[in-house]
C-alpha cells in the first residue's frame, strides 16, 4: 500500500511541491504565517469558548435539568414606609397550600421536595457552626443525589413521627464532629437537640456553583422544623425590627420527564400568578437556562469563529499573493513542462498540491500553537479551556481548504499561460 | 494513432499544405508563415535555415504542436493539428516529439535524473522504471556520473546533453532542435552534433533549426526560408 502510494503520481506531485517549498524556506514560512496564526486563533478561541460554556452548563446541570425551582422572595412593593424604626409583620412566599395544590393538580410531577430553611447555630460540645437547617422530606435525598457516607438519610417514618434525627454534610460533620464520633452523636441546634443519623457527601464549594444544597446544611424532617420553629422569624437589622412569616422557602419540583418540564413550568407559573397577586415567589427552570446558555454559547462560538475566520482569510490571501508571484517567477518552468507534454490539468495539480502542502503545514504548526495557547491560558488565568477534536479537525480542514481555494486561481493562471510565450520568458 | 501507421503515405510523418500563420501586430497583420507546404519523411534529417524573421521559430512552434495554424493543414502522423484539443496536443508532444532548445531549458531545482524523468512522470511511469530509463539515457549521452547533479553544476555541453536525454526519454520519433549549439563552443558543439547524427542514424527524424552553415552541414537536406516562405531545399 505504502509502496503503491510512493509510486503514485499524487505522491510524487506532493514530493515535488515540498521540494520547491524547501527551496525558499524563509519565504514559505512567512507565507504560511497568516494561516498559522489563523488556525491557532481558531483553536484557541474555540477552546476558551467551549471551556466557558461547559462551566456554565455544568452549573445549570447541577440544578437538575428535570427540575423546576420555586423560591420565596419578599415582594418589592411591600416596602413603603421610610421610618427609622419599623415594626411590622411581613407575610410572603410559598405556602403549605401551594405545596398541596401542586401535588393534587399536576400529574406530570414525579416528586415535590419542600424546603423550610432556617439559619441556626449548631453545637456539639465546644464546637459550633452556623448551620442552614433544612426542613425537608425523604425525597430531598432522591432529588439531590449525594453519596451517603455514613448512617442513613431521612425516612418516611422520620417525617411522619416528627422526630429529631439530623443528617449532616461531610463539611458540617468535619467541623462539628472532628472525625471523633460520627453517627449517633447528639447535636444541639438552637434550643433543640437532634441525633446525627447520617452523613452525606457535599460541601464542594466551587465559587458561583449553584446547587440546591449548601455545605452547612443540616437536614431534619420538615414536620419537626414546623413544630419547633413555626413559620415566624424575627430579624433585627440596622435599627429595624422585622417579623417575617414564611411557610416554605423553596419547592423543588421534578418533572416526570424532560418533555414535561416546560409545560409544567408554565402551569405552575399560572397557578402561582393566580394565588399570589404580589410577586413573592420566583420560578427558575434550569432547562430554560440551559437552553439559553447553549444559545449564548453558539452565538459566542460563531462570533469567535468569524474573527478567527477573518485571520484565516487574510492568511489565504497571503498565500495567493505569493503563489501568484511564484507563478510569474516560474513561467519558464511552466513553459518547459508544457512543451514536454504536461497537460493544463497537470500544471494545475502541481501548483495546487504545492499551495495545499504549504497551507496544511501551516495548519499543523498553527494547530500545535493552538494547543499550546489554551494550556497557557489555563496555567496563568485558571480559566477552563476545552480542546475538542472537532475544533482541531475544523482548523486543519479549513487550512487545507484555504490552500485549495486560494491556490486555484494562481494554478489556473499558470496552466493558462501560452507555452510559447512562457518558454521565451526570461 | 493507429491510423497514422496505416496512413496513405506511411513514410511521411509530417505533411503540411498551404500553412499560414498570421499574427496581429497593432492594426497590421503579420504573416509569419505565408503558405508553406512541407513533407518530412520518417528518418529525415533536415536543417532549417534563414535570417531572423524568416519564420523559422513559427515553423518550429507549429511542428512542435505548441501552436495551431491560422490557415492550411498541419498533419503529424496523419492527424490534423488544428483539430486537436489542448490536451491532445499535449499528448502528441509527450509521445511523438522531443525538444532540444538553444538555452537548454532544464528545470533548475531538479537533478539531472529528475529532468530526464520529466516526460516519464507525465506518462505516469513508475518511479523505479523511470529511474532505470533515466540512467540508461544518461549513459547514452555520457552523463552516467552526473545523475544527481543540478543543472548549474554542469557545463553547457553537459546541460545540453541532459536536454537531449530528456528529449529521448519518451522515445519520440521526431526530435526538434532549435539552435542546439547556439550557446556552446565549437568543441562541445561537435559533441552534441555527433550525438544528433547518431540518433538520426538509428532512424529518428530530426529537424534542426540553425543559422550556422557548418552545423547545417550535418543534416541531409537544407531548407532555406525567407519572409515566411520556403525559398529552396537543397539535398546534401
Secondary structure layout plus pairing:
The complex is a heterodimer of chains A (426) and B (236).
Chain A: H1 2-7, H2 9-22, H3 25-63, E1 67-72, E2 87-91, H4 96-105, E3 109-124, E4 127-136, H5 139-143, E5 148-151, H6 156-161, E6 165-169, H7 170-177, E7 186-189, E8 192-200, E9 217-221, H8 222-229, E10 232-237, E11 240-245, E12 250-255, H9 261-275, E13 281-284, H10 286-329, H11 331-340, H12 344-381, H13 389-416, H14 419-424
Parallel strand pairs in A: 2-11, 4-9, 6-8
Antiparallel strand pairs in A: 1-12, 1-13, 3-4, 3-7, 3-12, 5-8, 6-9, 7-8, 10-11
Helix pairs in contact in A: 2-12, 3-10, 3-12, 3-13, 10-12, 10-13, 12-13
Chain B: H1 2-5, E1 12-25, E2 28-41, E3 45-49, H2 56-63, E4 71-76, E5 79-80, H3 86-96, E6 97-100, H4 112-123, H5 127-140, H6 156-168, E7 174-178, H7 186-201, E8 205-209, H8 213-216, E9 221-226, E10 229-235
Parallel strand pairs in B: 3-8, 3-9, 6-7, 7-8
Antiparallel strand pairs in B: 1-2, 1-4, 4-5, 9-10
Number of strands of chain B: 10
Number of helices of chain A: 14
CATH-level-4 superfamily name of chain B: P-loop containing nucleotide triphosphate hydrolases
Q: SS-based structural class of chain B?
A: alpha/beta
The domain count of chain A comes to 2
Mean pLDDT of chain A: 83
- Estimate percent helicity of chain B: 25-40%
Overall outline of chain A: elongated
The largest pleated sheet of chain B is described as:
6 strands, mixed
Largest sheet of chain A: 6 strands, mixed, barrel
Span of the ends, CA to CA of chain B:
32 Å
Shape, principal axes of CA atoms of chain B: globular
Helix content of chain A: 55-70%
SS strand fraction of chain A: 15-25%
Helix/strand order of chain A, N-terminal first = HHHEEHEEHEHEHEEEHEEEHEHHHHH
Biggest interface goes to: A-B, 24 and 30 residues
Based on CA atoms alone, the radius of gyration of chain B comes out at: 18 Å
Amino acid at each position: 500500500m505504502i509502496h503503491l502510494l510512493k509510486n503514485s503520481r499524487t505522491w510524487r506531485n506532493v514530493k515535488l511541491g515540498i521540494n520547491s517549498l524547501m527551496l525558499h524556506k524563509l519565504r514559505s514560512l512567512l507565507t504560511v504565517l497568516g494561516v498559522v496564526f489563523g488556525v491557532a486563533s481558531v483553536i484557541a478561541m474555540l477552546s476558551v469558548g467551549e471551556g466557558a460554556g461547559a462551566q456554565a452548563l455544568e452549573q445549570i446541570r447541577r440544578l437538575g435539568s428535570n427540575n423546576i425551582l420555586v423560591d420565596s422572595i419578599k415582594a418589592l412593593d411591600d416596602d413603603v414606609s421610610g421610618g427609622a424604626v419599623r415594626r411590622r409583620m411581613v407575610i410572603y412566599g410559598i405556602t403549605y397550600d401551594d405545596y398541596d395544590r401542586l401535588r393534587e393538580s399536576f400529574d406530570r410531577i414525579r416528586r415535590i421536595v419542600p424546603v423550610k430553611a432556617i439559619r441556626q447555630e449548631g453545637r456539639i460540645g465546644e464546637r459550633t457552626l452556623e448551620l442552614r437547617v433544612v426542613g425537608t422530606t425523604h425525597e430531598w435525598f432522591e432529588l439531590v443525589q449525594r453519596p451517603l457516607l455514613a448512617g442513613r438519610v431521612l425516612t418516611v417514618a422520620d417525617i411522619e413521627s416528627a422526630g429529631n434525627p439530623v443528617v449532616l454534610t461531610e463539611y458540617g460533620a468535619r467541623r462539628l464532629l472532628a472525625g471523633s464520633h460520627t453517627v449517633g452523636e447528639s447535636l444541639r441546634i438552637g434550643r433543640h437537640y437532634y441525633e446525627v443519623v447520617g452523613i452525606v457527601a457535599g460541601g464542594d464549594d466551587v465559587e458561583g456553583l449553584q446547587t440546591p444544597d449548601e455545605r452547612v446544611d443540616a437536614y431534619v424532617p420538615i414536620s419537626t422544623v414546623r413544630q419547633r420553629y413555626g413559620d415566624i422569624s424575627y430579624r433585627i437589622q440596622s435599627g429595624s425590627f422585622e417579623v417575617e412569616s414564611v411557610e416554605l422557602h423553596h419547592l423543588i419540583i421534578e418533572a416526570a420527564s424532560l418533555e414535561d418540564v416546560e409545560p409544567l413550568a408554565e402551569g405552575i407559573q399560572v397557578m402561582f400568578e393566580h394565588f399570589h397577586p404580589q410577586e413573592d415567589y420566583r420560578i427558575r427552570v434550569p432547562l430554560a437556562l440551559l437552553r439559553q446558555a447553549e444559545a449564548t454559547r453558539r452565538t459566542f462560538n460563531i462570533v469567535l469563529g468569524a474573527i478567527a475566520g477573518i485571520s484565516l482569510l487574510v492568511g489565504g490571501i497571503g498565500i495567493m499573493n505569493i503563489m501568484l508571484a511564484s507563478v510569474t517567477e516560474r513561467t519558464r518552468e511552466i513553459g518547459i513542462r508544457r512543451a514536454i507534454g504536461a497537460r493544463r490539468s497537470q500544471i494545475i495539480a502541481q501548483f495546487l498540491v504545492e499551495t495545499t502542502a504549504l497551507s496544511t503545514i501551516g495548519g499543523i504548526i498553527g494547530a500545535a500553537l493552538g494547543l499550546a495557547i489554551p494550556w497557557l491560558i489555563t496555567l496563568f488565568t485558571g480559566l477552563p479551556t476545552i480542546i475538542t477534536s472537532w475544533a482541531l479537525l475544523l482548523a486543519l480542514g479549513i487550512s487545507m481548504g484555504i490552500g485549495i481555494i486560494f491556490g486555484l486561481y494562481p494554478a489556473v493562471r499558470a496552466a493558462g499561460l501560452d507555452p510559447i510565450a512562457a518558454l521565451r520568458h526570461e | 494513432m493507429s491510423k497514422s501507421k496505416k496512413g496513405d503515405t506511411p513514410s511521411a510523418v509530417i505533411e503540411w499544405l498551404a500553412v499560414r500563420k498570421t499574427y496581429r501586430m497593432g492594426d497590421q497583420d503579420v504573416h509569419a508563415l505565408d503558405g508553406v507546404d512541407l513533407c518530412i519523411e520518417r528518418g529525415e534529417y533536415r536543417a532549417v535555415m534563414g535570417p531572423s524573421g524568416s519564420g523559422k521559430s513559427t515553423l518550429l512552434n507549429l511542428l512542435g504542436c505548441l501552436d495551431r495554424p491560422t490557415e492550411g493543414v498541419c498533419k503529424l502522423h496523419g492527424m490534423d493539428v488544428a483539430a486537436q484539443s489542448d490536451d491532445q496536443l499535449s499528448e502528441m508532444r509527450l509521445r511523438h516529439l522531443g525538444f532540444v532548445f538553444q538555452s537548454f531549458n532544464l528545470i533548475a531545482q531538479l537533478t539531472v535524473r529528475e529532468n530526464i524523468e520529466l516526460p516519464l512522470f507525465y506518462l505516469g511511469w513508475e518511479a523505479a522504471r523511470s529511474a532505470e530509463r533515466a540512467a540508461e539515457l544518461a549513459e547514452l549521452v555520457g552523463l552516467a556520473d552526473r545523475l544527481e547533479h543540478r543543472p548549474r553544476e554542469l557545463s553547457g555541453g553537459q546541460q545540453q546533453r541532459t536536454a537531449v536525454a530528456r528529449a529521448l526519454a519518451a522515445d519520440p520519433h521526431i526530435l526538434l532542435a532549435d539552435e542546439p549549439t547556439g550557446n556552446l563552443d565549437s568543441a562541445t558543439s561537435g559533441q552534441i552534433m555527433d550525438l544528433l547524427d547518431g540518433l538520426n542514424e538509428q532512424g529518428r527524424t530530426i529537424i534542426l533549426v540553425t543559422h550556422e552553415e557548418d552545423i547545417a552541414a550535418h543534416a541531409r537536406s537544407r531548407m532555406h526560408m525567407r519572409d515566411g516562405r520556403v525559398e529552396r531545399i537543397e539535398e546534401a
